[in-house]
Amino acid sequence: MAETDLPKYRVIANDLLNKIQTGVYAQNTIIPPEVELASTYQVSRPTVRQAISLLVNQGYLERRRKRGTLVKKVKIEQEFTHLIESYSEEMSSKGIYPKTNLLYFGEEKANPEVSKNLQLEVQEPVFKMVRLRYANEQPTVLVTTYVPKKRVPKLADYDFSTASLYSTLEKYQLKVTHVIRKLEVMEADETTANLLNIAANKPIFYFHTQGLTSDEQPIEYSIAEYRGDINSFVIDVQR
């Protein structure tokens, strides 16, 4: 349905939601009062009230007595725990704008933890990358990834601020078909807290991921540190 075919309250609700998602109306702040919004959108107050009610029901806004209407902190429902897809694909499927900053890319020697998870000898060369990933311009997760250099020697040719690691691995017939993940809840150290724009010692979801190819050979080992205040995780278990 085209925007022009929508009822006025839905058009207003969509515009308010866009302002919330782009930070015009920041989380934990009060949106303009109904009378001001009615004037802005050139509609009646009941129409504005209907638009606000829709966003309240959807969990984006919360009415507070004597204060007004508050922008709620909405958690991103991550399906990282039971799906194998790129971060960009997952965020885009939710209507969230993803962005990646590549903070580091280089060659290192595998330490005991990395060598164990990639089934390498200690000190074997690996590529290491550190990426800070965003959702609607908000830092959401810090990911440190290791890949065996001997399996993908030309990995340094790619710009992983835009390229997908999993799609790149597929080009070398190294598709990740199986992952093993371990979850811990930890406190953010000062460096992680600064990058994720949270206070030090705040809780973070700390995922260790071992990515395996169809022949069960590990091709990726990643440590993902998700903000605890804006992320929740879906666990889909079937019997």
From TrEMBL:
PROSITE patterns: HTH_GNTR
Pfam families: GntR (PF00392), UTRA (PF07702)
InterPro entries hit by this protein: Bact_HTH_transcr_reg, Chorismate_lyase_/UTRA_dom_sf, Tscrpt_reg_HTH_GntR, UTRA, WH-like_DNA-bd_sf, WH_DNA-bd_sf
Organism domain of life: Bacteria
Domain named HTH gntR-type: residues: 6-74
Organism of origin: Lactobacillus panisapium
Assigned keywords, A-Z: DNA-binding, Transcription, Transcription regulation
Gene3D superfamilies cross-referenced by the UniProt entry: Chorismate lyase-like, Winged helix-like DNA-binding domain superfamily/Winged helix DNA-binding domain
Name of the protein described by the UniProt record: GntR family transcriptional regulator
CDD domains: WHTH_GntR
